[in-house]
Design brief:
By secondary structure, this protein is an alpha/beta fold. It has helices spanning about 25-35, 75-80, 95-105, 140-155, and strands at about 15-20, 40-45, 50-55, 60-65, 85-90, 105-115, 120-125, 130-135. It has a four-stranded mixed sheet, covered by helices on one side.
Length: about 160
């Protein structure tokens, strides 16, 4: 039985984030190199601090700026951790993970096809932000995902 072609990026799966980064210019350069990001806009103060920038990663807009502690806009390096993960669907998660690691990202979870039919990689960038990249490899019903989940956790 031949499985039908599955779209790696599900319809409607575009995400949006705003990141505070200790060195936004350096972060933008890293995201270009590691994730293939394209710079969309950069608003820079005369002293070099970036007040607002936008990059696009596979069509997903991510906004970012340098830290502004007076506005409680600080990044993971300042607070010592992050509590969020930015998730972006991409055409080829394996290639994205390999490229990012070569550029200096840390692979937190190896690339793996998960029970819910998506291939996933989780990485941490040098600025402390956590990223998950996914590609759909199977179109599953909620019932099938639930069945697989029960098998996985043996509840």
């Amino acid at each position: 039985m031949t499985m039908p072609r599955v779209k790696p990026i599900p319809d409607g799966q575009r995400t949006f984030s705003y990141l505070s980064v200790r060195d936004a210019a350096k972060a933008i350069d890293f995201y270009k190199h590691a994730f293939g990001a394209e710079e969309v806009i950069r608003l820079q103060e005369p002293g070099g601090k970036i007040g607002h920038a936008e990059i696009s990663i596979d069509g997903v807009v991510v906004m970012l700026s340098d830290e502004y502690p007076d506005y409680d806009a600080v990044g993971p390096q300042t607070v010592g951790h992050t509590t969020v993960s930015i998730l972006i669907y991409v055409e080829n998660v394996d290639a994205m993970a390999e490229r990012a690691v070569k550029a200096g990202a840390t692979l937190l979870r190896p690339v793996k096809t998960e029970f819910y039919g998506e291939r996933v990689a989780t990485l941490k960038d040098p600025f402390g932000h956590k990223w998950s990249f996914q590609s759909r490899v199977e179109a599953l019903t909620t019932e099938e995902m639930q069945r697989r989940y029960k098998e996985l956790v043996k509840v």
